[in-house]
Amino acid sequence: MFAREISLTETFLFSSLLLVVGLVLDWMIRPRVRRWADASNRIVIEASAIALGGQFTFWALIAITLLSAGLWPDLTLLEAWRPALDLAIVLAITIFVIRLIINLVDSYLRHRQIGNISLINNLLRGLGALAIGGTLLISYGIPLGPLLTVIAGSSLGLTLALREPLANFFAGVQIIASNRVRPGDYIRLASGEEGFVIDIRWSDTYLRQLANNIIIIPNAQMITQIVTNFSRPEPELAVLVDFAVGADADLTRTEAIVLDVARSVLAETPGGVATFEPLVRFNAIDASSTRFTVVLRGQSFTDQFLLRHELIKRLRERLRAEGIAPPTQIVRLQNEEIH
């Protein structure tokens, strides 16, 4: 009787220790490892830390159950629960592997600044659900052969019924595989729609306009249309600003003033490429004005608006202060004789 009490006490203490260790690993150490891996760009470690969520506590409970098996008053009850215990172990391993694969892809996309792609994540989750379902069926002794035969036999009808959704789905896969666009890119379609790519889903690609509206475009149209990607091969782009001065202005002096203003705009305006040397190109002249184009460089597509705004404002004030006349407006009046 005394030996029995010692065994119970040791089992209780060891089980408590296992549970505490599992909880500490799950809720204290694992999150810190995840944050460290995220900060240091360790994709595999980060994905593993996310996939291990709840695993330490689960395995601690399994170990406690098996450890205390010899203390159960009725061993037949343990044998009755053995299939459920084995199934839980198989499911835990399957879920860990699936979560590891999904989080590896998610961490890779995030650290490469590609953003979240719902099509990939949902496809992996769907395959994971099929794997879990297949594991459950096999565990209960249900053969998969007849089920696969039924699915294969009905695939032709499903393909015809879901022709357009499948076309959009495979178009989305092609968009991702070809790396034509990715979340975060600013694109413009030949049909005129433009915006930032925020997601590529099962059937549609989502664009966010500068006005914060959402444009939903079927993936099949994204494949067939001409797409201008302003973020490739690099996000920097030339910013062209048209301007004009009077026809009698000193062009050499005007060019020097414009370049000086343009350099200050690039150096002081957020989004400007300070190392870029601006250009001035005179391109037209008539009786009232001399027109030219100033070439700046912005860090991204949206930076061009502030750069253009600052250049026009500063350049007009500077030219006025330097005494360079703006274009003149010539109005011709024709006198008609009234009979």
Structure commentary:
This protein folds into 3 domains: 2-142; 166-229, SH3 type barrels (Roll), CATH 2.30.30; 237-321, 2-Layer Sandwich (Alpha-Beta Plaits). Helix 2 (43-51) runs antiparallel to helix 4. Residues 1-6 have low confidence and may be disordered. The protein is built from 10 helices and 8 strands. The relative contact order is 0.06. The strands form 2 sheets. Strands 4-3-2-1-5 form a 5-stranded antiparallel sheet. It has helices spanning 2-39, 43-51, 55-67, 75-111, 118-139, 145-161, 163-178, 219-224, 251-268, 303-321, and strands at residues 186-189, 194-200, 204-208, 214-218, 227-229, 237-246, 279-285, 289-298. By secondary structure, the chain is of the alpha+beta class. The N and C termini lie far apart (137 Å).
Task: Assign an overall shape.
Answer: elongated
The radius of gyration over CA amounts to 34 Å
The first-to-last residue Cα distance is 137 Å
Percent of residues in helices comes to 55-70%
Q: Detail the poorly predicted runs.
A: 1-6
Strand order, biggest sheet? 4-3-2-1-5
E-strand count: 8
List the secondary-structure elements in sequence, H or E.
HHHHHHHEEEEHEEHEEH
Helical run tally: 10
Class by alpha and beta content:
alpha+beta
Largest sheet: 5 strands, antiparallel
Output mean pLDDT. Answer: 80
Number of domain modules = 3
